[in-house]
Design goal:
This protein is an alpha+beta fold. The chain contains 12 helices and 5 strands.
Length: 361
């Protein structure tokens, strides 16, 4: 197993991870074998177990027997903060809160009915004592005893209702906090604790919402070169430490109004605010240098070190009309960097898009 120290990385050129179609086929086959329900959150669970480089999650899923209960799958998903399972948990919490409010409403309605019945009985007793000259003292006392018993019932029910309301408020506050935690968990990457792709998508979409002006906002997409070879050579635990160290470097490389997220197994995305097209490349070069200078780990023999290779594609928000187009332009630039690793940093332009189109053909 490797250890993070000061030095540089080396990685042999190998193919990128399986295609999406191959990955999906393996996920489906595994779920069918275990007879797991085809729910979106279950697909997410098994995909992360097979391709997410989370050894603990993989062990939890592979230890399942045939036909695992959905509650067991959900518990694993929540344990590892999977987005789909956090969303399901939040919905469950909301349902519990609704049930609690309905129960309190029924108790309150019953209490109001008892008060109204008591009021009618009291009025009847008063009229009887005033208008019926033949009523004796014993009859009046019987009526008063009945009213006293009814009043006692009301007091006890009011006390119970007050306690139920207090307990309900306490439970609802706990529910609110749990729901907030679930929302936050669903927007964070479990390994690096950076915002995840869902949080990134929301952030980049907001650039084009309402009256927001996306001018001078730069999107930079960063991909680790030959990441699969790192995993194959050093193992998931070591590459996990590399990813966490890389996230720390990236987190320290941004300012207050900037944004960085882990948007893929080997991919990070940045949004830099107030950056001109002329400055975008300089920022990308600075990011690249910060990794080369600061992220180091020992090779297997312990005697040599090497760089962690990065490829970068960037695009300007002002050159796109939507979040989808902006992301597509940055990914196109990244594809160009991937095609020619001698130029690891590429900015989007129509000429770059044409080059990628010809290469794809």
């Amino acid at each position: 197993m490797t250890q993070l120290i000061s030095g540089k990385t080396s990685a042999a050129a190998q193919s990128r991870p399986n295609t999406a179609a191959d990955s999906l086929q393996k996920v489906v086959a595994t779920m069918v074998k275990l007879q797991v329900l085809g729910l979106p959150r279950n697909y997410e669970l098994f995909y992360e177990a097979l391709y997410g480089h989370n050894a603990d999650l993989t062990r939890d899923v592979l230890s399942l027997n045939g036909q695992p209960a959905q509650v067991v799958l959900d518990q694993i998903g929540l344990k590892h903060r999977l987005v789909g399972h956090c969303g399901a948990a939040e919905q469950s919490l909301q349902d519990d809160a609704t049930d609690l409010l309905n129960d309190l409403l029924q108790q309150l309605s019953a209490g109001i009915d008892r008060k109204q019945a008591f009021s009618r009985a009291l009025e009847k007793t008063i009229r009887g004592a005033r208008d019926d000259e033949n009523r004796g003292l014993s009859e009046v006392m019987d009526d008063l005893d009945f009213l006293a018993a009814a009043a006692g019932d009301i007091v006890r029910s009011e006390t119970a209702l007050s306690q139920a309301l207090q307990a309900g408020l306490t439970q609802m506050e706990a529910t609110r906090k749990a729901a907030k935690a679930a929302r936050q968990a669903s927007l964070r990457d479990r390994l690096t604790h950076l915002p995840n792709r869902q949080a990134f998508s929301s952030r980049v979409t907001s650039l084009y919402s309402g009256d927001t002006n996306p001018a001078e906002t730069t999107l930079i997409v960063v991909e680790i070169d030959h990441f699969k070879s790192l995993v194959d050579r050093y193992g998931e635990a070591a590459t996990g430490r590399i990813l966490k160290r890389l996230a720390t470097i990236f987190r320290k490389s941004i300012k207050k109004n900037d944004f960085v997220a882990r948007t893929g197994i080997d991919e990070f995305s940045f949004l830099f605010d107030g950056v001109s097209s002329e400055a975008a490349r300089s920022i990308a070069e600075r990011l690249h240098s910060s990794v080369v200078d600061n992220l180091v780990f020992a090779t297997e023999d312990g005697n040599t070190t090497g760089n962690l290779g990065l490829m970068m594609g960037y695009a300007m928000a002002q050159d796109a009309v939507s979040a989808t187009q902006l992301i597509g332009q940055a990914e196109t630039a990244l594809a160009a960097a991937r095609h020619d690793r001698r130029s690891p940093i590429v900015g989007y332009s129509p000429a770059v898009a044409r080059t990628i189109g010809r290469n794809a053909a």
